[in-house]
Prior knowledge:
Layout: H1 3-6, H2 16-30, H3 34-42, H4 45-59, H5 66-73, H6 85-112, H7 118-132, H8 134-140, H9 150-173, H10 176-183, H11 186-197, H12 204-221, H13 230-252, H14 258-279, H15 286-312, H16 315-322, H17 324-337, H18 343-373
Amino acid sequence: REFLTFMALAPPPHDNRILRARHSLTRKRATLGAGFHFVNACAHGPLGIIVSIKYLVLHGGTRRPKVLNHLESQPMTTITSEPPRANSLKGMALMLGAGVCMAAMHVLIRHVSNDIHPFEIAFFRNLFALFAMVPWFVKLGWAPLRTSRPGLMLWRAVLNSACMMGFFMAISLAPLAEVTALGFTAPIYVAILAIFFLGERPGLQRWSAILVGFVGVFVVLRPGFGTIGLGQLLVLGSALGWAICLIMIKILGRTESSVTITVYMSIMMTPMLLGPALYVWVWPTLGQWGLLVFLGILGGLGQMGMAEALRLAPTHVVMPIDFTRLLIVSLFAYLAFGEVPDAFVWLGSVLIFGSTAFIAYREHVKRQQLNKSNGGLPKTPVHR
């Protein structure tokens, strides 16, 4: 679920601002004089020293580097924030497919949790999802493992592991439609947390959307009229934890690629989930092994599909498609367990999802306004 918002956050590799920064840096280096060139070249070995001496003898250290002339002669390219229509359609289709995978995974979690503890299921889900990503890792090589923020990656993996165990426990305790509906509250929490951690200042419209979202939560839970069980509390806590993870992803997105963030999450979470799983370990039967493998593959495919959908299309375009996940989960839950959501669940779900969709739309409008005020350059980094 943390992939719902982070795919539009990291800086592109060839941003004009980066080129301008490189131009400025190159100008400064060109004016530091011969001594700097020589000392700097010493760090590159004998060849660097020879080249530096030749540079000093011929040009006195004052000639402008050819690379600077070349860069300044190139026209600045404009990065458009809106993908073409074909990409938007692909993104919507991928989000729908990801929703089917996630819904099927939730049904399998509920079924398998009758015999295997949700903590153990969470471990296998992450383990087999990691196997499903092996072709992705092979294609990309070791590049995704380079990071400048290992500490924040670690804390995010710890929190995400706790959220996954809590959410899987909630699936085993509460009706699936309620779990899915309450899980949509994560973007609402993000809008609130961004005020404190990212310095964002929401306007009246966003505050109204947040209020509507929490009204939807109360409609689903019906405090005073229905029983609020441990499952409902766990999914709300997991949604809050996911919101904190999303804030971490926004911070990581300033320096790390989405691929690096995904790879580190999968690699770090597997050993973290093993400890709690061993505490409640039960060896699966042959049939359960097959379900666990299928469950993990569905989770990995859903995760990658959602990430790719958000890469191809803006968040406000694919977010409404994600709401179909509630419909799919409700259908699967009815066929598998005979669960029928009542009218309060549907009404609350509409309020919650309408709130999150509006927040995503306002974020898109804000980003477009920033792009226009920045001369066509996205002030908010665009994730690649």
